[in-house]
Structure formats: structure tokens, C-alpha cells
Design a protein that fits this description.
This protein is α/β, with parallel strands linked by helices and about 240 residues long. Helices cover about 25% and strands about 20% of the residues. Strand 8 and strand 9 form a beta hairpin. About 45% of the residues are buried. The structure holds 6-phosphogluconic acid.
């Protein structure tokens, strides 16, 4: 596994570098006439990135080559403030010309179990497959301060090894129903990028990146691409407890 950690002065510089990385990746794919299939993360961290992409990359990325999926979603309607899709639509999609059929939202308003199966079919229909699993060109992930990623929480490590593409789960703290990609699908991606900012993530970042024994059973610690690359985009606050070598 090819792992790279990049530390940025602040969230704005991190977002700028990631946007450039994304643009280069999509352009490279478009030159090969290949779609670029990405699963984006939810939560608050990527909001700045989506705003930057919407403000400055509407014409710098061939969005008609992008197929946009979500790594997880809260089981709420798209207009709900909790909706990961709703956030991306407000911050990014409303500023772009991207084919409607390229935006593959998880329908949080549907029955969770049925939606997990429906979404799995939509993923399989729009990706190439390897080892009978869909291959994302890029999976963007965040990390909770408890070590969860996507909606794979520490109380449900079985999701890392599930034979399903997506599963309906519950946030163990709030009980909120969610749909998440499973660990084997995430680890089948060509590129995985964690985006982590803020002081409250410093301890979990230290544990994961410095392979603290207490972290070995945390979901984010167990994200390891089988074939692809793993990148950590971390700002100085989130990286503030790392021992500089
Ligand atoms: C979600 C996410 C989740 C998120 C982390 C970090 O739907 O909440 O996908 O995995 O990435 O909880 O969230 P913040 O960026 O808000 O800290």
C-alpha cells in the first residue's frame, strides 16, 4: 500500500491542493475518454472544499466525465440540513453544469434496507468491477474523533469485511439511520483520500498515523487499499500531535 501524508497550514490550503489534485485526476481520465467515478464524504470538513470547487472549478474540471457518488448518507430527505447530498448540492452542484444522470445520490428518504440494495445496484451499474466489487477511482473520507469513517462506526467493525456493497446502519450515539459503503468496497478503490482538519481530530490522527496499538480496531485505521493509493490530507491543527521525524 502506497501511503502519503500531506500536512497543510490551514483548511483553505488543504482544500486548494485537493481541488487541484481532483482536477488533474479528472482531466487525466477525460484524456483517456474514461469516466472518473468518485465517492465523496459527508460531515462538515469537506464543505470548504465543495465551496471552492463550486466557486473556482466549474470550468476547470470536465464535470461531464465525473460520476458522483456518496460514501455514506444520513437517512433523511435531501432538503434536510443533515443530508450529505443536500450539502454538496448547495455548495457545489448548484454551481455546475453536470449531467443529472452523473449525480448518484443515496435516497435518504427511502426505507434504509431497500435503499442499501438499490444504491448497490446503482453503483454496480456505473463502475467497472474487480474481485466482484465496484472500483471507485477516488473515495474521499473523513474521520470522526472516535475513529469512524464513512458510517462505519467502532461498534460495527463487521462492516469492514461485509460481503455487501452498502449497508443500512445506525449512528450508535444518536440512533440516526444511515447508509454506508462497506470496507471492502472502499479498500477496492484506485485512490483513497482522507481529509481531516481541526484540533479535535489531533489525537485520533496521532493514533492512526503513528499506529498506536489502541487504534488497531478503529474503522479508519483499517482503511487500506488493496491495489490503490492512500493519501492523508491533514491540516496543522489535526496534525499537531504527530511526532515530526
Ligand atoms: C458523515 C461522514 C462521516 C464524517 C466524519 C467527520 O456522514 O458524517 O461521512 O464519516 O466524514 O464524521 O465529520 P466532520 O467532517 O463533520 O468532522
Amino acid at each position: 500500500m502506497d501511503r502519503q501524508v500531506k500536512i497543510f497550514k490551514n483548511p483553505a490550503e488543504l482544500a486548494s491542493d485537493f481541488a487541484s489534485y481532483l482536477a488533474d485526476s479528472v482531466i487525466s481520465s477525460s484524456k483517456k475518454k474514461k469516466p472518473f467515478v468518485i465517492a465523496v464524504s459527508g460531515g462538515s470538513t469537506p464543505e470548504l472544499l465543495f465551496s471552492l470547487l463550486g466557486d473556482q472549478y466549474a470550468d476547470k474540471i470536465p464535470w461531464d466525465y465525473v460520476h458522483l457518488f456518496w460514501g455514506d448518507e444520513r437517512c433523511v430527505p435531501p432538503e434536510d440540513s443533515e443530508s450529505n447530498y443536500g450539502m454538496v448540492r448547495r455548495k457545489l452542484l448548484d454551481s455546475l453544469r453536470i449531467p443529472y444522470s452523473n449525480v448518484h445520490r443515496i435516497k435518504g428518504e427511502n426505507d434504509p434496507e431497500k435503499e442499501a440494495d438499490r444504491y448497490a445496484d446503482e453503483i454496480l451499474s456505473n463502475t467497472v468491477h474487480r474481485d466482484k466489487l465496484p472500483v471507485f477511482d477516488l473515495v474521499m473520507l473523513g474521520v470522526g474523533d472516535d475513529g469512524h469513517t464513512a458510517s462505519i462506526f467502532p461498534d460495527n467493525l463487521g462492516l469492514l469485511y461485509s460481503g455487501r456493497i452498502c449497508e443500512a446502519v445506525s449512528n450508535p450515539y444518536s440512533g440516526q439511520k444511515r447508509i454506508t459503503l462497506t470496507g471492502r468496497v472502499i479498500n477496492n478503490a484506485e485512490n483513497i483520500v482522507f481529509i481531516v482538519t481541526g484540533l479535535k481530530k489531533a489525537e485520533i490522527i496521532r493514533k492512526i498515523l503513528e499506529k498506536d496499538p489502541s487504534a488497531i480496531n478503529l474503522p479508519a485505521y483499517n482503511i487500506a487499499p488493496v491495489y490503490g493509493t492512500l493519501k492523508w490530507f491533514v491540516d496543522e491543527d489535526a496534525g499537531s500531535r504527530l511526532h515530526t521525524t
